[in-house]
Amino acid sequence: MNLERHGALTKLGFAALTCNSTLAVYRSWDDPRAVAFVAGAYGAIALLFHLLRRFERGEGDRGRTKAAVWALTTLLTAMFATRVAPLMPPPVAALVWLMAVATAGAGFWAFFLHR
To answer: Do residues 48 and 76 share a domain?
Structure first.
């Protein structure tokens, strides 16, 4: 990813994300599922960052970019719900999943249905 055109805050945020992800992988090296989760989340966030910059600049097909942004945010929401829900009592886990589905649905409505 080319960070040369981005501001200092963007670079700092991306550096913090990279550092945090690297430390998380290091601490959970003996747990392949945790490493895969961190690597997948990092990759999805990095790709989301790239797509949002393209969308801001009006580059590429805006419809496809919106679809990709929605898919990535839905993926991240599901990934985090998958990790959080099992730690909760069943009624709270159901609420976590309900909120994840509502978030994905609201994002779909906002991106594709709302005019």
So the answer is: no
Distance CA 33, CA 36 (A): 5
* Residue range 81-102: mean pLDDT, rounded: 97
Spatial distance between the Cα atoms of 47 and 51, rounded to a whole number of angstroms = 6
CA distances from 107 to 32, 36, 42 (A): 31, 26, 21
* Predicted local confidence at residue 60, as pLDDT: 83
Kindly state the DSSP code that residue 86 receives in the 8-state scheme.
Answer: G
CA angle 86, 87, 90 (to 5 degrees): 65
Per-residue pLDDT of 9-41, as tens digits, reads 888 988 999 999 999 999 999 999 999 999 999
Judgement on whether residues 99 and 111 belong to the same structural domain of the protein: yes
